[in-house]
User: Fold this.
Amino acid sequence: MNTEGFTTCLWFDGQAEEAAHFYVSLFKNSGIGAVTRYPEGAHHPAGTVLTVDFTANGQRFVALNGGSEFRFNEAISFQITCDDQEEVDHYWTRLTENGGEEGPCGWVKDRFGVSWQVVPGRLEEMFRDSDATKVARANQAMMSMRKLDIAALEKAYAGE
Assistant:
């Protein structure tokens, strides 16, 4: 097996190239790689994009124009761990623009239907606390939110 890790394949219905460019624009350490096209005699018009290799935040992906047979759902999501509220706001805004959808508890679906969790790293720290009461308060606060508000989570965690 190749020791360079895994490549995530994302199945699109004609939007692979657009999606790859969007994800590359969203994250640092990103770029577009090889683009392959359907040959003559394939189940898509010859010359249309088949795959786009890209890297987003250092992770390898391939966007595949496979057709309308499959759709994304929340069973698979990508978690973005954010350093502060500014990052939470940035990713939330970018992922919901142009037809993305807000979800509960920091979840969002981008315009292509891919699910993301926009999570402050601080919340992950709260959830690892040995004080079950603090964890429960932070969890209850999170469950009432759509976009996560770090200041409100901190207050709940502290019992304020």
Q: What stands out?
A: The chain has five helices and eight strands.
